[in-house]
Amino acid sequence: MKIPKNLIDKYNVPVPRYTSYPPANFFSTEFDNKEYIRAIEFSNNEWPENISIYLHIPFCPKICYYCGCNTHLTRDKDKMRVYVEALKKEILMVKKYLSSNRKVAQVHWGGGTPNSLPVEMMEEIMGVLHSNFSFITNPEIAMECHPAMLDSAYIDALVKSGFNRMSLGIQDFNLKVLENVNRDPSEIPVEELVQLIRSRGDIGVNLDFIYGLPYQDVKSFSETIEQAVKISPDRLVTFSYAHVPWIKKAQKILEVRGLPEADEKLAMFEAAYKILTQNGYKPIGLDHYAKADDELNIALENRTLHRNFQGYCTRETTGQVYAFGATGISQLESAYAQNAKDTNKYVEQIESGNFFIEKGYKLNKREKIIKHVINEIMCNYYLSWKEAAQKFEVSEDELKNVVELKDSNLDSFAEDGLLNFNPDEIAVTDSGRFFVRNIAASLDPNLKNAAQKFSKSL
Questions:
Q1: 148 partner at 20 to 30 Å CA-CA among 212, 398, 404, 439?
Q2: What is the pLDDT of residues 312-326, one digit of tens each?
Q3: Is the peptide bond before 22 cis (omega within 30 degrees of 0)?
């Protein structure tokens, strides 16, 4: 895939990433603990019935300069213990409002560095989940792991606790790149680490990479992806570095060290795309790749792919997301609720028996329709107006009015070969996939008057 430079110049503008709709920077502080409780109770009668659990572990032994996540720099196990006790209590607090007939389809550990948590604390949290919830057959239980802190004993403990997917945050195999973003490389050679994980059973392995960092270029990043292909992970992610120094001050360090221009960054994406697709990987969404027989690719072919803050998922593992821990964002069908980020205050609030909701958002039917339209474009590259209208029990004309659809919204994309559309459907082309954020934004009427800042699309 080769994207013409004129399209890069035209579409490299700030737009939301649409991991949620509305995006998180639209959330309001008027949404409080009482609203969250009402939202949990209301969610029991909404689709999807399944539960997806997100656990946020903010602790990191050191801060990677590119990181945009909520992190807490510490190695203090006493602080971790206090946090874990609060996390376990919050889980039980939420469970009180959930219907007992609902089952867990997905558990995702993110951070921070989840595997910086001592094994026994991880086991305790998983024990609370297994003791208090029913699970579907073959749920996905995954952890984002820092490979520099992963060894045989920790892998054994994860598998024993039910984990069946591990995402390794490699970021780059080039040691100069890692050094300049303050990222430690894997202690065990990555190829050996993946073999070690797979030797423990049917465990899915993801390798995650970032492009757009200092000292990366097309040649070096291509070498990294070629090395990844030899390791043969089940899934692979090439995240575009999101530069938001107004939120994450540490990212300013990377400006001094030199960030690749948009042209170079796009060339890295194109090179990785070519290498991966030529080696049997199928592109999933904006930045994921999976082997042809992977359940994500099968879902994409069937146009049943979904996405939440944790990434892409199938219809079987789709659930309303209930998030635990500082800055965790719950994604219910009709509401979002985000915990505040201060870990000490989070512990204080939970210990006192109160939730720690900082902000959230309650969706109306109009916004649910826009959310569905954008999700279909972002996940499945396709939208049937008829199917969407049937889902919401409205006419197709009403649906199009909600997103304020006009042919002029889509004409430019069609002229540039990025999508095809007619009165019945929208279908994103292969070359349009890289600009899917722009396409989704054209169907977002709320974006027209937005004052929020977003990272650029490329």
A1: 212
A2: 988 788 899 999 999
A3: yes
